[in-house]
Amino acid sequence: MPRELFRFDTAASVADFSAIDDRVMGGRSSSRLRHDPAGHAIFEGEVSLADGGGFASVRSRSLPLGDAQAVTCRIEVLGDGKRYKLSLRTDDLFDGVTYQATFEPVSGEWTVLRLPLASFKPTWRGRPIDGGSAVRPESVRQLGLVIGDGQAGVFALALRSIALE
Question: Tens-digit pLDDT profile for the chain (165 aa)?
């Protein structure tokens, strides 16, 4: 049985998320997660490569999101032709190990993607951790979205829901 973590059908559904962009290290990128009256959220903004930047992200506050039985993260998204990462964190800290999986949804079409939890790789500040441990699904506390990888410019990823299954 899927455990729905976020359903973005109301304005209140985005309240647990805040932006963490490359501005934390002097960059110029910006993003936000906003509710669209059509009944979904939009992760939107602009990635700038200026001043050593190059990423934009949003992250949920710490919540008990874990599910020991989960093997997949399911997201329902409407893509814009860009590549994104879904991030999972197993602690309540601002900085530390993040587990990331890359996805590139179909542009202009609502799609349900299933990202195996085994495909989430441990990273620290966006860099892979060699020999790092696998994500423990029962310990998930924060969830985020990231765009970077040299993809400068405006972006907009629409989301209906995120679940563990």
Answer: 689 999 999 999 999 999 999 988 889 999 999 999 999 999 999 999 999 889 999 999 999 999 999 999 999 999 999 999 999 999 998 888 999 999 999 999 999 999 999 999 999 887 889 888 899 999 999 999 999 999 999 999 999 999 999
pTM (predicted TM-score): 0.94
- What domains can you pick out in the chain, each with its CATH number? 3-164 (2.60.120.430)
Nearest-Å Rg of the Cα atoms of the chain is 15
Cβ neighbours of residue 93 closer than 8 Å, sequence gap 6 or more: none
Which structure tokens are listed for 140? Answer: 């998930």
Nearest to 6 by CA among 111, 157, 162, 164: 162
